[in-house]
Specification:
Blueprint (H helix, E strand, L loop, with lengths): L7 H9 L39 H11 L4 H10 L12 H11 L12 H14 L6 E5 L15 E5 H19 L10 H10 L5 H16 L3 E5 L5 E4 L2 H8 L3 H9 L10 E5 L1
Antiparallel strand pairs: 1-2, 3-4, 3-5
Helix pairs in contact: 2-3, 3-5, 4-5
């Protein structure tokens, strides 16, 4: 069902990558001896005709390892944690058995091999059977924002929706204590203040107001001409806002036509240009 990786690059990614998933297309094929290609996951010499993976098991293992919160990873975690919530102990095995019995007679399950797309269909049917109040979720034991690993199965667990919500509140408090939040009565450090000032540079209300006075408001009050493409009727308006009210259109859509953005030359049969 699952195969451990023998590739040292995977271990390095596990330590350095700080997101919930990793794109498998970024993993490149390896040539250890310089001539034969090796499997990206287990480093075995690839059979003739194989480009990246030696078997379906390696593909499923990589899909689960690099995205533990998705369907392939959830299936591995279900078997690892005996189908139970790590918080309250709610048992999900009856729903899993019911889902398997429901889809096993379908055309994509006639072959006994569990291919990746069959696992996707099985897990989708499994998720649909679970009630919303106890829906299954994958939780990081140590949050990624607090230094926890995002890849692999060492830092993830199965929780129901109620347990996950309660744990998330605790994680947010711990993150607030570490990173600071003035709304919660915790002061920002100098590093946080500098980072926020760079992110918000030019975005304060006074700067935006001055920018609108210079760039936006004169164009809104500039006379425009509207032409109907079907009847060739022409209508003159003193401002963009007047045209929007009269023709029952949005100001933003007329503005896009006037700017020519998104290759838009008309909107709902009307063409606009400055008079």
């Amino acid at each position: 069902m699952y195969k451990r990786s023998g590739n040292p690059i995977v271990e390095e990614l596990t330590k350095s990558h700080r997101e919930r998933s990793y794109n498998l297309s970024d993993l490149k094929s390896i040539k250890l001896d310089g001539s034969n290609r090796n499997c990206v996951w287990c480093l075995k010499i690839l059979p003739k005709g194989k480009q990246k993976w030696c078997s379906e098991l390696c593909i499923r293992s990589a899909l689960a390892y690099f995205a533990p919160c998705r369907n392939h990873g959830l299936r591995v975690l279900l078997y690892k944690h005996a189908f139970k919530c790590a918080g309250c102990g709610f048992d999900y095995k009856p729903f899993f058995v019911q889902a398997y019995n429901k889809v096993k007679n379908m055309w994509y399950f006639r072959n006994p091999k569990m291919l990746s797309y069959r696992i996707e269909n099985l897990m989708k049917a499994f998720r649909r059977l679970i009630p919303k109040n106890v829906r299954i979720e994958v939780d990081h034991v140590i949050p990624i924002c607090l230094g926890g690993q995002g890849l692999g199965f060492d830092n993830v667990q199965i929780l129901c929706a109620k347990c996950h919500k309660a744990k998330t509140k605790i994680d947010i408090k711990n993150r607030t204590i570490k990173n600071g939040n003035p709304r919660k009565g915790v002061k920002f450090t100098k590093e946080h203040i500098e980072a926020l000032s760079k992110a918000r540079e030019g975005q304060d209300s006074l700067a935006r107001l001055e920018s609108r006075k210079i760039n936006l408001y004169p164009k809104l009050r500039q006379p425009i001409l509207a032409v109907n493409n079907s009847t060739k009727q022409e209508m003159a308006f003193d401002s963009l806002e007047e045209a929007a009210k009269t023709l029952n259109l949005q100001v933003s859509n007329i503005s896009r036509v006037l700017r020519g953005s998104q290759n838009r030359k008309q909107h709902k049969g009307w063409t606009f240009k400055y008079a």
